[in-house]
Amino acid sequence: MNIKPLGDRVVLKAAKAEETTKSGIILTSNSQEKPVYSEVVAVGPGKVDEDGKLVPMNIEVGQKVIYSRYAGTDVKLEDEEYTIVRQDDVLAVVE
What we know:
Strand 3 (47-48) and strand 4 (54-55) form a beta hairpin. The protein is mainly β. The chain has strands at residues 9-13, 37-43, 47-48, 54-55, 64-67, 73-77, 80-86, 90-94. The strands form 2 sheets. The protein has a 6-stranded antiparallel sheet, with no helix packed on it. A two-stranded antiparallel sheet has the order 3-4. 17% of the residues are buried.
């Protein structure tokens, strides 16, 4: 099953949360922070502006991005976790 985002939305494959700190302390699932670094698996066609013109997306499938910590909607599909965010919630592309 494929996810096809609409408008200016981006589907991100959720990265795994860190289970230990750098110093070796094991974190419980409640204390693990939501990752903000993910891989783009699908992008929408773009947003239609006030003049009716399609504004193309700046993000491409396969890029690694950093997005706002509390942005988007988490979705679980076929045992995979995804986050769907708007293009405006993507802060940077990691190269």
